[in-house]
Design a protein that fits this description.
Length: about 450
């Protein structure tokens, strides 16, 4: 079986079929003639900032590093060490790379050369957007949006007899690193205000803050107020964080992303924006994206790139020279039905929360009433045609089910709901006039 390596420096992901074998963030730390990579390097980045690099994938080239060392003179040397750390899991198996759409011909050649130097059996390279798009969206322009450590990448896709990659644009005004830094600075101010303790004055504590940051950002989305704790020697410092504070910290970055999208999405026709789950999990991100005019937002399955890359390779054939796949046919009707059944099954198992006005409410077997007044999720004032108990969302054997109690005034993905319906990640519940939407999402670790 061909392994799939999805190259995104927020975390390189290695798949065997639908099984995720490893996630390795794009960090390398060189100390004492030894290179640490991935999570190990990320957990040393604040302790050893000069010796740690995280821009080598973003600046992937043979250009000289600003701080060369004994093991690496160029960005490509660091990429070599990062990939080499994955070699034990790859072994002799054929491997295909899912690569960013904004990579140049020179960068594609460079990574092929690194794979050859590592004695990898490189089967093909597949554009990430081509791999991620699982089905057509008739009557809409299709785009794929993904976030890397230091940039956002937007890819336009042509939908015809086959899926074809078209224009690719990127922006370095928005990346996961900038967003993390903004949230870390906001949390630092909270510690200073409450305890007069500055976590950034001690490298060990600063590292501790960043090690906990991703967990905190996940947990705050389904908590009214989250207690944060940092320790220094025998001292313990605490403060509290709420979702609004995180979103306020992220707001300037989300505005830049919105400007980037508004400049590159067509204003005169409806669009479907396919986004990765790494983007959808960011606090407040989906609320920002769903506010884009004439744009439906769809969250790709966690394994969408791996499954789509494998299908693209199968369609392209295994013989001949290494290819860079920029188009692939849509699945035949019989295959499409089976494929979409797999995706539906995937989505049925995934929803853990419902997102409304930047807050994620956990689903449960007891159910959540959506409506006004005493409802578990009260939509607030200024919205007409909303009953106190308008509809109910519950988990039944792990599957999210919505039940209408409004005599047909509830809509699912802009279609009227009659009775009861199974729903999944990315489905939108529309209620009231003017209509407000609630989004089903998955929060990792729930």
């Amino acid at each position: 079986m061909t392994l799939i390596l999805d190259i995104n420096d927020t975390g390189l992901r290695l798949f065997r079929g639908q099984d995720l074998l490893q996630v390795s963030p794009g960090f390398v730390t060189v100390l004492n003639k030894t290179a640490a990579t991935g999570h190990e390097a990320q957990q040393q980045a604040r302790r050893h900032p000069i010796q740690t690099e995280s821009r080598f994938w973003d600046q992937f080239s043979q250009d000289r590093l600003a701080q060369p060392n004994r093991l690496a003179l160029t960005h490509a040397d660091l990429a070599y060490h990062h990939l080499n750390a994955l070699s034990a899991d790859i072994g002799d198996a054929p491997v295909a790379l899912a690569v960013p759409g904004d990579w140049s011909t020179e960068q594609l050649g460079l990574i092929a050369g690194i794979c050859q130097a590592l004695n990898w059996n490189l089967a093909a390279m597949v554009d990430q957007a081509i791999a991620a798009a699982d089905r057509p969206y008739p009557g809409r322009q299709l785009f794929y949006l993904d976030l890397h450590l230091h940039r956002a990448v937007l890819t336009a896709l042509e939908q015809g007899q086959q899926l074809i990659r078209q224009q690719v644009v990127s922006s370095r005004e928005m990346g996961l690193t900038r967003l993390r830094e903004a949230c870390a600075e906001a949390i630092t101010r909270l510690f200073i205000q409450r305890t007069r303790f500055d976590p950034l004055h001690d490298a060990e504590v600063e590292q501790q803050l960043h090690d906990k940051l991703e967990t905190w950002l996940d947990e705050v989305q389904h908590s009214d107020s989250l207690e944060l704790e940092l320790t220094q020697h025998d001292n313990r410092f605490t403060t509290r964080l709420n979702l609004d504070q995180v979103i306020n910290a992220a707001r300037p970055h989300y505005r830049r992303l919105a400007r980037f999208l508004n400049a590159n999405l067509p204003a005169d026709r409806p669009c479907t924006l396919l986004v990765s789950q790494r983007m959808a999990r960011l606090p407040g991100m989906m609320a920002r994206l769903t506010a884009l005019p004439q744009t439906d937002v769809v969250i790709a399955a966690e394994d969408a790139v791996a499954v789509g890359a494998a299908e693209a390779i199968a369609n392209a054939g295994a013989d001949g020279p290494i290819t860079h796949i920029l188009h692939r046919p849509w699945l035949q009707d019989t295959d499409l039905e089976a494929h979409q059944s797999r995706l539906r099954a995937f989505h049925r198992e995934q929803p853990t929360h419902i997102l409304y006005r930047n807050r994620a409410y956990p689903l449960s077997r007891q159910g959540l009433w959506i409506g006004n007044g005493s409802a578990d999720i009260s939509l607030g004032e200024g919205i007409a045609d909303v009953d106190e108990r308008h509809c109910r969302l519950s988990l039944n054997a792990g599957q999210a089910v919505i039940t209408d109690a409004s005599d047909g005034k509830t809509r699912i993905n802009r279609q009227p709901l009659e009775g009861e319906l199974e729903v999944g990640v990315g489905d939108r519940i529309g209620i009231g006039r003017p209509q407000v939407e609630l989004l089903l999402i998955r929060v990792e670790g729930s």
